[in-house]
């Protein structure tokens, strides 16, 4: 049985490699490479897979999952510049893929091993990624 908590956060980023020219960065990363950063309204879906607890009827108490996401993900990334404010992205390009993997790793460490975890991050109406741990 899988349950999901959906959250949203707003962050700024810039996709670029320092060792590449502006032209090459623009060619690879397009608008997301604009030098002065830009924001996205990210939609995060955290899916937790596990058995239904016969005592509560829940897989996981979604209030608790909400608290974990707020404390460990939104506090870090919401209304931040991912490149400048977040040490996780000092050496890691903040693509949607990497944002999802970073969030998955954070949440994995906070959840009981009996649960499987999937993290979906939507960067725009048209683009989203799903990370399941590999
Ligand atoms: Ni972008």
What does it look like?
The chain has one domain: 6-pyruvoyl tetrahydropterin synthase/QueD (Tetrahydropterin Synthase, Chain A), CATH 3.30.479.10. The protein is α+β, with helices and mostly antiparallel strands and 134 residues long. It has helices at 22-29, 62-77, 82-85, 96-108, and strands at residues 2-13, 38-49, 80-81, 116-122, 128-131. A hairpin with a 5-residue loop joins strand 4 (116-122) and strand 5 (128-131). It starts with a strand and ends with a strand. It is 31% helix and 28% strand. It has four helices and five strands, in the order E-H-E-H-E-H-H-E-E. Nickel (II) ion is lined by residues 13, 32, 38, 40. Nickel (II) ion (NI) binds at residues 13, 32, 38, 40.
Side-by-side strand order of the widest sheet: 3-1-2-4-5
CATH topology name, in short, is: Tetrahydropterin Synthase, Chain A
Give the overall form.
elongated
- Main sheet attributes: strand count, strand direction, barrel closure: 5 strands, mixed
CATH architecture: 2-Layer Sandwich
Tally of domains: 1
Q: Estimate percent helicity.
A: 25-40%
Span of the ends, CA to CA: 20 Å
Q: Give the integer mean of the pLDDT values.
A: 97
- Give the CATH H-level superfamily: 6-pyruvoyl tetrahydropterin synthase/QueD
Q: Count every beta strand, where a strand is a DSSP E run of 2 or more residues.
A: 5
Treating each run of at least 4 consecutive H or I residues as one helix, how many helices? 4
Percent in strands: 25-35%
Radius of gyration over alpha carbons? Answer: 16 Å
Query: Class, according to the CATH hierarchy?
Result: Alpha Beta
- Unreliable sequence segments: none
Order of helices and strands: EHEHEHHEE
Which ligands occur here? nickel (II) ion
Subunit arrangement of the protein: single chain
Structural class: alpha+beta
